Amino acid sequence: MLLHSRKLLAVVMLLLVTAVVVTGCKGVQDKKRNDVTYPAVTGLTHTWGTISDQQTQIKSKAVIKNPYPFAIVLKTVNWELDLGDNTVMQGVVTKNQELPSGNETDINFEAIIDNAKLNQLWAIHLRNKEHTTFSYQGTMNFDLKAGEYKYDFKQSYEVKTNLLGQKSQ
Predict the structure, then answer these.
(1) So what's the architecture of 2-159 in CATH?
(2) 82, 35 Cβ separation under 8 angstroms
(3) Where is 8: in which H helix or E strand?
(4) Is 99 exposed, middle or buried (0-12, 13-18, 19+ CB in 10 A)?
(5) DSSP letter for each residue of 65-86
(6) Residue 106 CB: number of other CB atoms within 10 A?
(7) CA–CA separation, 84 vs 134, rounded Å?
(8) Would you kindly state where each structural domain of the chain is located, as residue ranges?
(9) 153 near 137, Cβ under 8 Å?
(10) Does residue 134 sit in helix, strand or coil?
(11) Confidence class of residue 35 from pLDDT cuts 50, 70 and 90?
(12) Using the 8-state DSSP alphabet, how is residue 167 labeled?
């Protein structure tokens, strides 16, 4: 029964996290800064990995567009997903993967949720009347041949649920 409860909590938290990430990435186009186009994330999908009593694995695929007429290298991605002051997931992906010119490239990576945090995160969400603010931030590090480029990203998302049938006030 305990494993079933943890799996249910993992599913609920994954749905919340997925809603945050998908909402943030939907329709994202090339990032422009000072009229210069830079690489950008154009899509993000998730699937379940291994689930145990201790942790839940999430396999993700990011689609990154290289707008340049030459290949560039995505060296690393550092990222973190927070619920208020609580880190839900974080990681560093070292790829050194070449992104062909003018194309979108799939980048696969994995994340691990510490199941010990699920009860705490669920309690925070319920205490906030099923209203939670997530923040997603990190840095993509590219080798642009003429030098390195660090693309910092940070976004916040509000997730509202009504799983317990609470009345809004």
Answers:
(1) Sandwich (2.60)
(2) no
(3) helix 2-25
(4) buried
(5) E--SSS-EEEEEEEEEEEETTE
(6) 11
(7) 6
(8) 2-159
(9) yes
(10) strand
(11) very low
(12) P
Mean pLDDT of 128-146: 84
Residue owning tokens 């309690």: 123
Percent of the chain at pLDDT exceeding 70: 76
pLDDT at residue 28, as a whole number: 36
Distance CA 22, CA 24 (A): 5
Q: Which two tokens stand for residue 83?
A: 């619920």
* Residue 143 CB-density burial (10 A; 0-12 exposed, 13-18 middle, 19+ buried): middle
CA separation, residue 2 to residues 5, 7, 11, 131 (Å): 5, 9, 14, 26
What's the average model confidence in pLDDT over 128-141? 84
**Helices 2-25 and 118-127, packing angle to 10 deg:** 60
Residue in the structure block whose two tokens are 């030459």: 70
- Residue 125 DSSP code: H
Band of residue 100 on the pLDDT scale cut at 50, 70, 90: very high
CA 149 → CA 51, 77, 144, distances in Å? 36, 12, 7
